[in-house]
Amino acid sequence: MRQKITLFRWRSMLFTAAVAGIVAGIFFGYPRLGAAQVAGANGYTNSDGSVIDKPLSAVLGWALSSFWAGLPKPPAEHVQGYHFPVVCDAQGVAPARPSELSVTWIGHATALIRINGTTVLTDPHFSERASPLSWVGPRRRTPLPYALEELPHIDVVVISHNHFDHLDEPSVLALVRQSGGAPVFIVPQGLDRWFTERAIPTVHSLGWWQTYTLNGFEVVGTPARHWSGRDLTDRNQTQWSGWVLRSGGMSAYFAGDSGYSADFAAIGQRLGPFDLALIPVGAYLPRDFMADQHASPTEAVMIHQDVRATVSVGIH
Ligand SMILES: [Zn+2]
Ligand SMILES: [Zn+2]
């Protein structure tokens, strides 16, 4: 009996590992059916011309070693696993008068920023899973402090890139239906097509260093070190960005997803200093696999210094 249970456990673990490998392969765009396109003129690259492009063996090795090592580990050193308190004010998200700046971290890369009377949402994700399928894929670890319907009217949404943990279709469609009308979606180059295909006309795409202005409120696209892709054919066919928000002499910087690079010093020089920065600090292990796409905690502090932020919040 015990042997049977052990055998069953091994089989189910191997099955889970195999599924994890396949899902990871799909998520990272392997086999890359669009490889010929990516190698051509239409594929986006990092600012130094590099492309994050790992062989299938490395992707499968990462998926299996993460599975066996139980990565990502819960943040047990400072708090009890993932069960840290979720602060949620009965009055709703942090208020801000017209001349003020406030931020409410909603979870992962989703934050609500109020800057001089404009309400901005970053990478809105309110679904249970970051996945093309509702029943499989990475699951939310901590509850949302606020449902999407509890938020004030959103004027502008910025999207950093098209990975499923940053571009969530149900959340985008719910925002389009918010009372008072759809927000303006500011997206990286090439990603506007995803919106127009869904009959969302209030979308503007911007390249790095380009600016969009709305009633004195400015959004500027900034470079990031990352990649894009939602299926087997679209690897790096849309750009990835960070965003700078400026209004009334105040400024905030949302870094999106990024590995550490010289981009941050350039952003600090050209557009800093910032009153507030949202800097990604998650999914950084194992380093040999993640370093070129996700910053470590040490690198997040370097980004804080490079961009010259007064206050930074770790996200993702
Ligand atoms: Zn990403
Ligand atoms: Zn991400």
The helicity comes to 25-40%
The secondary-structure element order is: HHHEEEEHEHEEEEEHEHHE
Low-confidence stretches: 1-19, 25-40
CATH domain class name of the largest domain = Alpha Beta
Instruction: Sum up the overall morphology in one term.
Output: globular
* Order of neighbouring strands in the sheet with most strands: 1-2-3-4-5-6
CATH architecture of the largest domain: 4-Layer Sandwich
What is the subunit organization of this protein?
A: single chain
Radius of gyration: 20 Å
The hetero molecules present are: zinc ion
The total beta strand count reads 12
Strand percentage:
15-25%
Q: CATH homologous superfamily of the largest domain, by name? A: Ribonuclease Z/Hydroxyacylglutathione hydrolase-like
The pLDDT mean sits at 85
Largest sheet: 6 strands, mixed
Number of domains: 2
Which secondary-structure class do the elements indicate?
Answer: alpha/beta
Termini gap: 44 Å
Output the CATH topology of the largest domain. Answer: Metallo-beta-lactamase, Chain A
* Number of helices, counting only DSSP H or I runs of 4 residues or more: 8
